[in-house]
Amino acid sequence: MPDPSRNLEPRVAQFRIDLRAIARWISARSPSRLGLTIANAFIGGLSLSFRTWELLVLTLVLQIGMLPLMARDFHRITLAAPLVNLAAVPLTSAIVPIGFFALGIRIVFPAVGQIVAAPLSWLTLALLHIVHWFSKFPRWSYRIPRPPVWLLVIFFVLAALIAVTMRVSFPWKRAARVVLCLGLAFCSIVIALFPLAPTWAAGKLELTVLDVGRGDSLFVVFPPRQNLTYRWRWRLQRISRTRGTWRN
After folding, report:
1. 208: part of which helix (H) or strand (E)?
2. Which residue has the higher pLDDT, 72 or 225?
């Protein structure tokens, strides 16, 4: 039977060979009845660790790639997303197929569909509890202003150039990739921290809703550049008590 390691890169093949040698060494020094079990547990633990690390790296890459769009459209930076996805992605991968199965079988057998829907509701509640638990940590999610267009263009241009350098071979490929990655990291930090001055539109009325923790505030900028900050927490409470009726 051909060895699949022959088609891998030298470093990857060497890593697989080293893991096999470690597993055999552990199996040889374990009790005869437990040697194979211990070696399989060691390999299974490494496989789970690598899968978790792969999911974390993929989540970080997606988080960085979606950073400009999240800042532009939602004005929010979520630092807890990579950790939340470690639990959310496996749960979602189980919820989606079970949900389609429960929906399809309920049409034919309603009683069976209700039975299948029970574990589906448990998984969904677990997902919601995990997300809400992480959302309670302070400063793991914060709002930022909309980044300027030129910063978004630079970010995506650098990301496209990184993708090109990974496909094309040229003499200074490694140095170019390092420079582009550093530039992309710098743009990500600028988007996340936003150390830029706010933009003022002359002759226009601007209204910004601020989340101040215990309520919301309205920051109003009038055309002559006169500012007004208005807190309306007590009014929100009064609105909720009167079922949406505004009273002064």
Report:
1. strand 206-211
2. 72
